[in-house]
Amino acid sequence: REGEEVVVRVTVENRGWRERTGETVLDVVHVETGSVLCRRRQPYGVAAASNQDVSASFRVPGGLAGLCRVEVHLLAEDAAIDHLEQGFVILSATPPELPPLTLRENYLHLGDRPVFLFGSDNFGNVYTSTTEGPLWWSREHEASRDFGFTIYENLQFTPAGHQLTAADWRQFEGMAHLA
């Protein structure tokens, strides 16, 4: 949300037999506007069979909501040797106004328009996997819309002790924003 601090952390791991030095290049881009929210170049030096965390932080600017893409390029001797991408969602301070979904005369209506709802169930791993996250969710929703899906449903999330945390609710809000 606006004004909150975002911390992006990446682990640079060296599985080789000698020290590796280079630079990480990190970009955070607001997908809808293309605005660069953060750009950092940071040197690293990682001993053999070791790792090092590299991080950057920034504050969320006002007036933005939506998906942000984080890209990190790992450089060694001025050549790119690895790349990763992930994302996060800037939540709006006020959720958008949506037309009501009602059942009238045996038809679902979105506002005044009758609709046929078609969708699919997903699994709770979308919230816990290190290989999925908001950028993946966005791409999955886009592909689903291409197939005519209008409902995203996930009844498979079971947190530890069956107690939802603030972080769980935050992810649900991000998913809803992207849907």
Keywords for this entry:
mainly beta, four-stranded antiparallel β-sheet, three-stranded antiparallel β-sheet, 179 residues, elongated, single chain
Summarize the structure.
With 179 residues, this protein is mainly beta. 15% of the residues lie in helices and 47% in strands. It has two helices and eleven strands, in the order E-E-E-E-E-E-E-E-E-E-H-E-H.
SSE arrangement:
Blueprint: E1 5-14, E2 20-30, E3 36-46, E4 50-59, E5 66-76, E6 79-90, E7 101-104, E8 107-110, E9 113-115, E10 119-122, H1 134-146, E11 151-154, H2 166-178
Parallel strand pairs: 10-11
Antiparallel strand pairs: 1-4, 2-3, 2-5, 5-6, 7-8, 8-9
Description:
This protein is mainly β. Strand 10 (119-122), helix 1 (134-146) and strand 11 form a beta-alpha-beta unit. The strands form four sheets. A four-stranded antiparallel sheet has the order 3-2-5-6. Strands 7-8-9 form a three-stranded antiparallel sheet, with no helix packed on it. The longest helix is centred in the last third of the chain and has 13 residues, at 134-146. It is built from two helices and eleven strands.
